[in-house]
Amino acid sequence: MDLKQILKPDQTLVVVGGNWGDEGKGKVIDLLMANFDATVRFSGGANAGHTVFTPEGKKLISSLIPCGVAQNKTCVLARGEFFNLELFFKELESSKAIVGQVPEILIDEQAPLWTPYHRFFEMYIEAIRGSKALGTTNKGIGPMAGIYILRLAPVVGYLFEPELLKTSLKALYDTLKPCLEYLKSSQDFKEEIPDFEKVAEELLFYSARVKEYVTDTSLWLDSQLKEGKKLLFEGAQAVGLDAWWGTYPYVSSGISSPVGASLGTGLPMSVFTSTVVVAKVLPTRVGNGPMPSEMWQRQAAMDFARDHKELFVKGETRNKFLSAALEKINSGNASHPEMSQYFQVLGDERGAITGRGRSVGFLDIPWLSYVVRITKPKYLALTRFDMLSGLKETPVIVGYEHDGKKLPAGSLPPSWKLKDVKPIFENWPCWQENIFGYNDFAKLPKPAQDFITRIEKLLAIPILLIGTGPGRDAMIVKS
Ligand code: IMP
C-alpha cells in the first residue's frame, strides 16, 4: 500500500518528536505533506529548526514558517506558536530565494509577539540560575510563554492598534524593569536596552507588511475541515521538551505533545485522532537536563564536537576516524564515551540553529514506552536507522531500574529522579550491509527487519516510516 492509501482515513495528522528534538521531523513532514492541503505549526517558535527540501532537492531550514513552504502548501502559524516578526520576514525572504513563489501564509492574530524584552528577560533568568542554567536557545521562548500566561504579552494583532501596543509594551517594560536594571549593572552586559517607545517603533515598522498574513487562524482551520481539506500539524521540539510532560524544568516552554495541537489552534480535541511520533534510533539531547540513555556526559559530548570540528567535515580525517572507531566498537572494546564519539561524528550531531554538539544515547525502549503512553500514536517514524549499519550489535535499553525495582512499561520517576534510573541493557544484533539510502523494507537485511519488528512488539505500535539517510528518497514506507 502506498502512503496516500495509508493516510486516506486521516483528515488531520499530528507529527511530534519522541525524544528531545532534532529527530528529523522536518524530513518526515516533508514526505507526508504531499498528502495534505496545509501544514500548521501549533507550538514552539524561533527555537525550532526544521530542515526540508523542495521538490528540486534544494535545502531549506525553517524555524517559524511550517515546512509546507517548500512544497507550496498553505502554511499556518497558529496561536500556539511564539511569533517573531523580524525573523518571520527574514525567513520569508530566504524561502522566496529558495522556492521562488511562496504559498499562502496565515498568522494568528493573537499569537504572542516577540520583543527584545523577552530576550533580555531570558538572559536575566539564565544569569540568575548560574550553574543551573537550562541552556536555552536564547530565542526568548520561556519568557514568551510565561509572559503570555501572566497576561502581559503583546500579541500580533496589536501591531494594527498602535496605542494598545504601546500600552502593552510599557506594562511589560515596567514589570521587567528591576530585572533589566540588574542586567544593565552586570559587567558582561554591553547592550543598549531600548525604551518601550523605541520597541514600538521598531515593531510598527513591519505592521503594514505583515497585515495581509494576519487572521483568526482557528476560524480558517475550522472552515477548511468543513470543506473536507486535510491538515498536517507540525510539532516542534518533542515530548521530552514539553513544558508539562517533558523532563521539567529542563524543557522548552511550548506544548510539544499532541494536546498542543488542540490548545495551539483552537480546534476541538475530537478533531485530532491520529499522531505520528518521530524518534531517532539513537536519541540525542542538547542543552541541559536528564536523558537516561546518554552514552557520555553531556558537557563532554558537547566539548568533543566543539574541539574536533575537523571530524565533522567530510573527508579523509573523518573517514579514518570512523573506520577505526567502528573497528574498536565491533571488537567489543569500545567504552560508551567512544561509542558516543563515533555516533556524534557519523550522524553529524550538531544543532541546526545553535551549532551546539548533541549528546547521543542508546535506543531507549522505556523512554519511548512513556512517550507512547502520553501520545498514543497511530504510527512511529524511526529516523537515522542507517546509523547502525556495520555494527555487529548494539546495546538497547529495555527497562529502567529505580530504587532497586524494575519500573513498569510507560512509567517514569519524577524528572528530578530520572538521572538516578539504571538502564537495563540487551545487545541486539545489527548488520554489515550499509543500508544508507534504502527505501524498500523487503530489501533490508534480515537482522535489520528483525530489529524493527522487535521495537514494534515492545511498544505495540507499528513503525510506518524508517529513515535511512538525509536525502528525500532515503525513507522506507512500511505498510
Ligand atoms: P528554549 O526552548 O530555548 O527555552 O530551550 C529550552 C531547552 O530546550 C534547551 O535545552 C534547548 O536546547 C532545548 N530545545 C529547544 N528547542 C529545541 C530544538 O528544536 N531541538 C533541540 N532542543 C531544543
Explain what the structure shows:
The model has no long low-confidence stretch (mean pLDDT 96). The protein is globular, with a radius of gyration of 22 Å. The chain has helices at residues 3-7, 25-33, 85-99, 116-129, 141-149, 162-185, 196-204, 207-210, 217-226, 259-265, 298-307, 316-331, 336-346, 365-375, 415-418, 446-459; strands spanning 12-17, 38-41, 50-53, 59-62, 74-77, 105-108, 214-215, 231-234, 275-280, 284-285, 359-360, 379-383, 393-402, 405-406, 422-429, 463-467, 475-477. It has 479 residues and is of the alpha/beta class. The protein is built from 16 helices and 17 strands. Bound molecules: inosinic acid (IMP). Inosinic acid binds next to helix 5.
Helix and strand topology:
Elements lengths: L2 H5 L4 E6 L7 H9 L4 E4 L8 E4 L5 E4 L11 E4 L7 H15 L5 E4 L7 H14 L11 H9 L12 H24 L10 H9 L2 H4 L3 E2 L1 H10 L4 E4 L24 H7 L9 E6 L3 E2 L12 H10 L8 H16 L4 H11 L12 E2 L4 H11 L3 E5 L9 E10 L2 E2 L8 H4 L3 E8 L16 H14 L3 E5 L7 E3 L2
Parallel strand pairs: 1-8, 1-9, 2-5, 2-8, 5-6, 6-7, 9-12, 12-16
Antiparallel strand pairs: 3-4, 10-11, 13-14, 13-15, 16-17
Helix pairs in contact: 4-5, 4-6, 6-7, 12-13
The protein binds inosinic acid (IMP).
Short description:
This protein is an alpha/beta fold and 479 residues long. It contains 16 helices and 17 strands. Inosinic acid binds next to helix 5.
